[in-house]
Amino acid sequence: MTAIANMSYKPQTMKKEEAFLIDILTIEAERLEPHPELPVPYYGAIQWEKHVQDFTPDKEKNLFRRLHPSLQNLMRMTSILRDKHPSLMDPRRRWAILTASQLEKERDQEHLRALESPRKVTPTAGLALTATGLNFLIARTLDIRFYQGESIAHVCASGNHLLKMARDAIREGAHLVLIASINNMASIVRAAYHNRLGIISKKGVIRPFHKDRDGTIMADGLAVALVASSSLVKATGTPPLARIAGAGGLADAYHMYGLDPEGEVLQLSIEKALSEAGILTPEVRVIKSHGTGTQQNDAVEAGVIKRLFSRHPPYVTALKPYFGHSVVASALVELSHLLKNINERNEIVPIHTTSPEDVDPQCKDLNLVLESPCAFPGGYLLSLAAGFGGFHSAVVLEILP
């Protein structure tokens, strides 16, 4: 005992694992159009049934048949991701599963069934009506027994927050993190709610930073993403899309539906993300803005970007004009398309609905990518998102050569 007590031990410093974004699969609205049953001019609905017509799961067939089509697509996309990355996605590794969902259409359907007769509620309704349903389905599809599971409800900021949580889970010992976000908004109640808030475009087009922008268009969406630790990426030789270099997420209580016009919390979130990444503002080469096309959001974002990046303005783009505002799925859906264009064509996707002569005077100093794509200069990308209830988020990604 004495000999042991007198021994001196040198503390072991563990090398911090980095988090790498490996892949993102998405389903988004194919077109934005009037919906005969919804009290808004335009809506981006997805025909979920179409995407699963030829899919037969190799596990949980009985459960799959009883699910809502949007959740069937979650199982399908998870299976596709597993088949694309078999060397990585071993169920015996240490996993985290992180999800966000707004399954408004499913909730409405179950509510109406219950009003007609409680006996008509489907047996699997709980998977659509509880936040943990997505985590359960992913784990069963991948045959994972034990995992760190979390589900959040941070509305439009959810995708960025999930990336931040994935980075944290990797640092805490997870080998792999699967992120999923589903937005099924084609609901009478949800559409009426957004319509009454006055944020829906009457012209049926999202025009970020446009002087005459008049609102956004709500849409369905699904995104499933895989994040892996640096040691696992190295061991398997898997080429990643990007490194999650830094993340910041803060909330305020300024207004339930509006943003603080000064953008203080959005700015603090960006500064935290930059600090975590260990970079200065000139190193950010591209910003994927939240870009909802509403008067308030675009003005607040423009003000914050100008304050922080005025000396070395990065390119700024917005992707909601392409497939609508898919709320909890929006950040990941948009990031997927931006990264795909950067990796395949070395291009930054433009804001094709706003022309240079139509830019709002408040946004004139931004280095907006308009009408046609421009070359990606390499380096770091900043993804921004903000949501109802004061949620703000910023993620810095290092785009790897």
What's this model, at a glance?
The chain is of the alpha/beta class and 401 residues long. The protein has helices at 2-6, 48-51, 61-66, 69-84, 104-116, 125-129, 133-142, 158-171, 188-197, 230-236, 264-277, 295-309, 320-323, 330-345; strands spanning 19-28, 95-103, 148-152, 176-184, 221-229, 242-251, 284-288, 315-317, 347-348, 367-368, 374-375, 379-387, 391-399.
Please give a structural write-up.
The protein is an alpha/beta fold. The protein contains 14 helices and 13 strands. The strands form two sheets. It has an eleven-stranded mixed sheet. It has a two-stranded antiparallel ribbon with strand order 9-11. A hairpin with a 3-residue loop joins strand 12 (379-387) and strand 13 (391-399). The radius of gyration is 22 Å and the shape is globular.
What is the spatial order of strands in the main beta sheet?
3-2-4-5-1-6-13-12-7-8-10
What would you report as the Rg, rounded to the nearest angstrom? 22 Å
- Major sheet size, sense and barrel closure: 11 strands, mixed
Give the terminus-to-terminus CA distance. 55 Å
Percentage of residues in helical conformation:
25-40%
Strand content: 15-25%
Mean pLDDT: 92
**Overall strand count:** 13
Task: Give the low-pLDDT segments.
Answer: 1-13
Shape: globular
Assembly level = single chain
Secondary-structure element order, as H and E? Answer: HEHHHEHHHEHEHEHEHEHEHHEEEEE
What is the overall number of helices? 14
Structural class: alpha/beta
